[in-house]
Amino acid sequence: MYTFPRITLPQKAIDKAKEQGQVPDMYYCMRLLEEEGICLVPGSGFGQREGTFHFRMTILPPTEKLKVVLQKIRDFHLRFTQEFS
């Protein structure tokens, strides 16, 4: 089973992604992978509406493991948005 949460990215992060030749949600997912070792799939590969950003993640892990992963994603997202705000 998958979930497709919508994320809000600061304009500076969108601009940085474009500078590097990446779509913004790919840039976000790659940074998360590099910094936290968590692999998500960018929503841009699934036909999201222009100007919106998502990622796909599996929600099948045991609840306790999922809680740890979700906390790491939350912490990363806060750092990421602060960096580009």
TrEMBL record:
Its cofactor is pyridoxal 5'-phosphate. One of its GO terms (molecular function) is transaminase activity. Keywords: Aminotransferase, Pyridoxal phosphate, Transferase. It comes from the Eukaryota. Coiled coil: none annotated. Homodimer. PANTHER family: ALANINE AMINOTRANSFERASE (PTHR11751), ALANINE TRANSAMINASE (PTHR11751:SF480). This is Alanine aminotransferase 2-like.
